Every structure is written in structure tokens, then in C-alpha cells.
# Entry
Amino acid sequence: MIKLAAPAPPEAVESIAAIGRFASARGWVPATSGNFSCRIDARTIAITRSGVDKGDLGAADIAALDLDGTLPPGLSAETPLHVARYRADRGVGAIVHVHTVAATVLSRMHLADGVIAMAGFEMQKALQGVTTHLGEVALPIFANAQDTDELAARIEARLGAAPAVPAYLLAGHGLYAWGQTMSDARRHLEGIEFLLTCALEERRLGR
Amino acid sequence: MIKLAAPAPPEAVESIAAIGRFASARGWVPATSGNFSCRIDARTIAITRSGVDKGDLGAADIAALDLDGTLPPGLSAETPLHVARYRADRGVGAIVHVHTVAATVLSRMHLADGVIAMAGFEMQKALQGVTTHLGEVALPIFANAQDTDELAARIEARLGAAPAVPAYLLAGHGLYAWGQTMSDARRHLEGIEFLLTCALEERRLGR
Amino acid sequence: MIKLAAPAPPEAVESIAAIGRFASARGWVPATSGNFSCRIDARTIAITRSGVDKGDLGAADIAALDLDGTLPPGLSAETPLHVARYRADRGVGAIVHVHTVAATVLSRMHLADGVIAMAGFEMQKALQGVTTHLGEVALPIFANAQDTDELAARIEARLGAAPAVPAYLLAGHGLYAWGQTMSDARRHLEGIEFLLTCALEERRLGR
Amino acid sequence: MIKLAAPAPPEAVESIAAIGRFASARGWVPATSGNFSCRIDARTIAITRSGVDKGDLGAADIAALDLDGTLPPGLSAETPLHVARYRADRGVGAIVHVHTVAATVLSRMHLADGVIAMAGFEMQKALQGVTTHLGEVALPIFANAQDTDELAARIEARLGAAPAVPAYLLAGHGLYAWGQTMSDARRHLEGIEFLLTCALEERRLGR
# Structure
């Protein structure tokens, strides 16, 4: 049974509050959207509650959560997407989810493809393990769903044990990214969002 | 007779000044445009005066107003649009009005339709009572007018007792949104503006 | 003979420094571009020097200038455009000049027309004396030139004694706006820039 | 042999930290991208280390470097591009490198041309020695490469002793700009980025 382990440690609260302020300043978490989490230990994470402004998070807005239990009330409906990622990969230390215009529009445009591929950008090297612009970043796209347990299972089944790209899109919804640390997750978030913005611009130009 | 009940309570002033700072930082109230109000009690509201920078509001810029009287001088010409909404629905606690590029351009583009419809966006859930992305948000569009008494009557006649969406567009003018609290009104404002920005982007792409 | 009347009064310095900070925060004065001035009295103005960051102006960056003399060194090459406006209209109390993308691109696109016309926008009411969205704002466009004395004469000859719109564009260069006070000039600047941004967006959409 | 001369002088650290904060606020160094340097003396420069957020640089993030030696570990892989510029031109006092959407997209679009030409913009005068909008700014574009020693040699061979424009693009990568001082380099950066943004907008409009 998952229990709400209150409260989250101060360093987890500050790490999550900082990424929330960053994302809010960029306009990436409008209307109390988005959610953020980080790993506390092998079986516990800290995660944002639902319905709060992510640009102004405090200790009361962030809950500690047992990865092996059932979900307590008050958390985001998307908590299962976080939990599934942490369970699938012990190397995941932080997960960020934002709603950007580029992620939303491109994920709708390319949903039938199941992926958006980007190649030839130096920014691809922002992703852990990528050392050249010559490869291709293939960002998976999943159909959105309100049953997030089912959605999480569908996502993890496709991602498998070693996802090539530390991020995915939910169609018409937004971007998930992760990393070993919050710094890694933020770098992946910024890098992917930059790539998507360039890709969107190229589609505006009809290229 | 509507009297100017001076001054507005400090908590109403702060609530309105805060949303003004937020909207100004986003560039949504250029050239002293926009106006904001909140309910004080069943028959009284606080509302911004005309011609002031909405990013730097103080007590002198916000008036208390009796909903059952006539309008005092110095208020925005759009005050009747606020008053009509508060009168039509006792559940409305706050109303926000901004001028954004997306709202202005899309409202001109779709005026003949009388509505802009958006579907399949997770952000639709920012609107009170919406629990899935699968439905459609049909945002009403009204022709702009300088006779705001007539305009208010026209708007309320169409909105009816229970508007499906807590917002509307004035063509070539801007966006009105409301909610039970100022937090709700702001969430609706941010959510609708995000949806409009995505809709505009999709039209840029010819989709 | 125009003499450099040093220094400008503190209230003129603060007024100009404040509009400089505002324009810089919006990204409207890149690369030390833009210049700002205000009237001190019937025959004297305060104006920014050349080559300084307009987001960080101090007293040393702003000179007092006699409108009836010749120009001292160190001022912007565009100072004659300011001087000519103040001389032509005793009601002009402040002039602002910025470089925005919308002003630059649209002024190139419509140079052959000599004007860009905008109609049906509520924001037109940001301009002094405009009371309805039903009219048309016809913003003059002039070919750019490095001989700013000749350019100023050409501009004033066309504007005449009572310009309908308190602003003009220099093709491929930027926007000039003015008003009775600095607040009026800023409102005109923000209003025109918003209208131009909408006009540009409509051209992106092929409308 | 290039040795790491630790630490960089405080004024070099502050100059680089300031341009980093500026670029970060503009969103031009996402995902720890970008790098910045300035000359300390004829044979020494200060340059940012790799993998740090350029919006929050401190003394530990900036190394002093001997131009005549070999590169120490921990520096950006792009350090040779900086070193080559300083070696080629003793008048270069600062170099800035950023990742912007306009630079990235246009450099990919025009790579086959080897150049992007911009003419008729007043902003061209932001570049040192340019006194009129009537000429043409021909910004070189180079194919991106991960072997930055080879890339630096290729770039310097084409730029020659007296480059006409103090900047170049790396395709799909970003913008390099330089100047005699950090202020000059920043003005060139802002001016070129503005020109590229206008050029991109004109391509969106199909012009």
C-alpha cells in the first residue's frame, strides 16, 4: 500500500520549487499545469500536488510518496506516469512535465507517426550520451488518455528498459523528460524544448 | 442608483493588483488596456479605474461599486460588461479582461462563425468542470461595440444562465474570463490563452 | 546656435531612464539602438546620448539641448528627428523611438504604399482622440536615410501641423511615437506596437 | 603547452558572468549551451567551463587559458574556436557564442549558400565600421563539426585577416560574434540576432 510519507525532505522541496520557478518564468506551466518530482531513495519520491501554481511551490505543495503502494488523494492524476518511470529505471532521479505550445502542437501534428524525429542539431548533445549532431533524436509520441494507469503501462511497454531519448510527448498535452539528477532532467527539458521550437519553426517555413 | 463606495477593502485591492502585475508581466495589458474586478459581497464589487497601467495598481486605482446603481465617472467604459456578469451569476467571484495578440487575431478571423472551437487539448481541463480532453471548448465571439450597455445585454442574452465556458472573446478587442475566485479566473485566463495560442499556431501551419 | 545645456533636470532623467528600462525589458532597443527625449520647457529638451544601453541610463547619458541652436557632438544622429517634431508642435512633450521586429518588417513590406492601415481594433483607442474601433489608423512610412536633417524635413512636410496618428515608421529601421506627456508617448508606443504585432500575425496567416 | 592559469581575474569573471546572465534571460543559452570568453592580455584569455548554466556563472566556472599552449581538460569542446579567433586577430577582446532559434533555423536553411545576406536594415549599423543601411551584411555559414580543431582551421581560413562581419553561423548549431571589448561583442550579438529575427520573419511571410 502506498502511503503519503509526510513531509518531503527540505532539499527535495527546494529542488522541485526551483525547477517550478524556472518553468513558470518560461511560461511552460500555465493554469497550474505541469508537475515535477525527484527521487528521495530507492522506494520513495517527492512530487507536486495537484492544482497549485508551479511558480510558487512550498513544502505544503510537495508530498513524499512510497513507490510500492497505492496513491493517496490530492496528488496529480498524472502521478502514475511518474511512478512508472521511477519503477522501470532505478537510474531515474528526477522527472519534469510541462505544457509548451511547441510540444502541444507538434505532438498533435505527428501523433499518427508516433514519433517526431530531429537530426543535425548541435542541441541534440544536451541529451545524456549523445556526442554528435549527426544522429537522430526520435522523440516518442503517445495518444493522450485520462486513465493514467493504463497510459503509464502503455508508455513503459514501448519505452522498454533503455529508452534512447529521456523524454516523450503526450499528444495535445505536453512534454515529459527525466534524468539522473534534477540538473540532468532540466537540461533534457530545455534541450528538447529548443529542438521542438526549431522543428516547429521549420514547419512554419514549409520545410 | 449605483454609488462609488470608497475605498475597496485591502484584500480586494491586493487581489486585483496581483493579477494586474501578472498580466502586465505577460504583456497582456499593453497601453493601459485591460481591466480586472472581484466581488466584495452580494451587491458590491471592486474594479479597476480607466487609463492606468495595470502592472502598477494601487488603492487609488481600484473603486468599490454598487451592482444595483448607476455607474460613477472615472471607471472603464467596459464596466457594464463586468456588472452584467456579476448580476447574471451570483457564483462569479472575479472577472479578468486582457488584450492578447492571439485573442485579438483569432476573434477577428472567426467572428463570422460566432465561436472558436478547440478540442483534444489536455489544457481544456483548466476550465472548471471539464474532466477530459475529449470534449470541445466552444468559446463565444461577439462583435465589438462602443455602447457597452447594449453590448453587455447582447452578451448575457447569448451566454444564458449557465455558460458552458467561463470566457468569451470580443472581436478585434480581447478576452474576458471569470471564475468563482480570482485564482479560478486566472486559471481560466491562462488556460484559454494557451489554447488560443495553440489554435493560432495550428492556423499558421495551415492546419 | 544650439548649446548643450548641462545637465538635464533629475525629473527628465528619471522619466527617460524609466521608459528606457521598460523598452529594454521588452527587447525593443537591442544593440544600444533607440532613443528617447522629453521637453523641459518651450525651447529645451532632454535627450539620450548615442551608443549607450537604453536599459541602464543615468544622468551622464542624457543631455539637455536648446531647440533653437545647432547640435552638439555625442548625441544620436537621429536627434534632428526629435528636434523637428518638438519645433513643429509645441504640444509634443515626449518622443520615443524603438527598433521592434514588427515595425522593421512591416515598414519594409509596405514602404511602397507609404502607409500601413489598421482598422477594427479596440487598441486603436490607445491613441489620443480616438474613441472607437470603427475608424482606421493610417501609420505613415518613410524611406530610411542617413542624412537625418533632410529626413526630418521630409517627414515634417508630410506630417503637417496636425498629424492624425502620433507615430510613424522608418522603413527597415523602426518606430517613432510621441505624446503630450511621457505617459502618453508610452501608451502610443505600446498601442501601435500591439497593432503592428496583430497586423504582422494576420499577414503570417495570409489574411 | 597551454596551461590552465587559475584563477581568472575578477573583472574578467564579472564581465563574462554579466553577458551570461543577459543571454540566459533572453533564452539564448538553453540546456547549459553557449560559451563566453574575453582577453586578459596578449597571450591569455578567460573562458567558461563546459556543462554549467550560463545564467549563473561564478569564478569556479571560468578558467584562464594560455593561447599558446594545449587545452586543459574541463573546458568546452568549442574552446579551439575561441582560441583561433584570438590568435588570428589581436584586436579581438571578447567572443560570445549562443544558441538561438533564428540562428539555428536560418543556418540550416542557407547552409548550401554558405552565407545569409541582409540589406537595408538600420540595425546593420550596430556592427563596427558600418555607417549606413545601404550596404549588405553577409554573414558566413559553416557546416557544423565535432572536430573543433579542424573546424577552427576551416573557419579562420575563410574569414581571413580582416573579416567584413564580426560574426558567423555554425549550421544547426548557433551564432558566434566578437568585438574589441565585451560591450562591442554584445552589441554585435544583439544586432545580428535582431537582423536574423527579421530575416526569419520575412521568410515566414514568403518574402
